[in-house]
Amino acid sequence: MSEIRLIEPVVRFCAVISRHEEARQWAKQRLAERWGELGELGTPSPFEAGGFYKPEMGDGLTKELIGIADFADPAGLADWKNTTNDWEAEYAALDRHPEPRPLNLDPGYVSQAKLVLATIKDRDHRIYLRDGIFAEVTLNYVGGRWIHHRWSYPDYRIETVAQFAAACRARLRQHLKATGGFRVGVKKTPGAKSVTGS
Predict the structure, then answer these.
(1) For residues 87 and 104, is the Cβ–Cβ distance under 8 A?
(2) Nearest 5 degrees, angle CA 125-CA 19-CA 168?
(3) Please, which of 9, 42, 78, 110 could form a disulfide with 133 given CB 3.0 to 4.6 Å?
(4) Pair 135, 117: CB distance under 8 Å
(5) Phi-psi map region of 62: left, alpha, beta (phi>0 left; psi -120 to 50 alpha)
(6) What is the Cα–Cα distance from 41 to 163, expressed in whole angstroms?
């Protein structure tokens, strides 16, 4: 019988997308208040998505990747997505902008081997978690670099995202080395948890 092993923590992050600087700042403040101190800050970049979001979010969108300093349990991914959906609705209800969806929040995490996104959309390459949320492995770390797949969103194929993921991975590995928290060869005590996430 296979033995359950320790699950390594991950770096939780959130993609913050809006045409409004005020909305992005509100999101970063909310992330810091609810999920803890901010860690890695990705380079802001234009977000196109083929015009898919234009009707509800408008033109001239900017996307920022925001890492969270505290490490998290990857099992929380579905909860994170449902939480950020609530935050989107909360900000829209403030009625500060004309767009029906002025803020888009997409959480995910970086592990040693992959960058994972949460989504409500089902596809052949996505795994259902719970509560209407699916998980997608968008990037993999192979041969010392981050690689994408046929399904990876174009905005996750750019160098600035690879740099962000590399910074998250480096900090995670430093933490794992310092704490001896690597999965290989480490058994998990029944009922014990290695990290927390909400």
Answers:
(1) no
(2) 50
(3) 78
(4) yes
(5) beta
(6) 10
Cβ-count burial 151-176 (b if 16+ within 10 Å, e if not)? ebbebbeeeebbebbbbbbebbeeeb
Residue 184 confidence (pLDDT): 65
Rounded distance between C-alpha atoms, residue 181 and residue 157, angstroms: 30
Confidence (pLDDT) at 5: 75
Residue 71: Cβ-neighbour burial (10 angstroms; 0-12, 13-18, 19+)? buried
Query: What's the Cα-to-Cα distance from 192 to each of 4, 124, 135, 170, rounded to whole Å?
Result: 11, 34, 24, 26
Query: Which of 171, 48, 174 lies closest to 109 in space, CA to CA?
Result: 171
- Exposed, middle or buried, 180 (CB in 10 Å: 0-12/13-18/19+)? exposed
Q: Give residue 65's Cα distance to chain centre.
A: 8
In terms of pTM, does the model score above 0.85?
yes
Angle at CA of residue 12, ends 42 and 133, nearest 5°: 115
Q: Identify residue 75 by its one-letter amino acid code.
A: A
Return d(Cα 70, Cα 48) in angstroms, integer: 30
- β-partners of residue 105 are 16
Residues of the chain with pLDDT under 50: 186, 188-198
Q: Cβ(135)–Cβ(118) under 8 Å?
A: yes
Between CA 15 and CA 9 the distance in angstroms is 19
Half-sphere exposure of 124 (CA within 13 A, CB side): 2
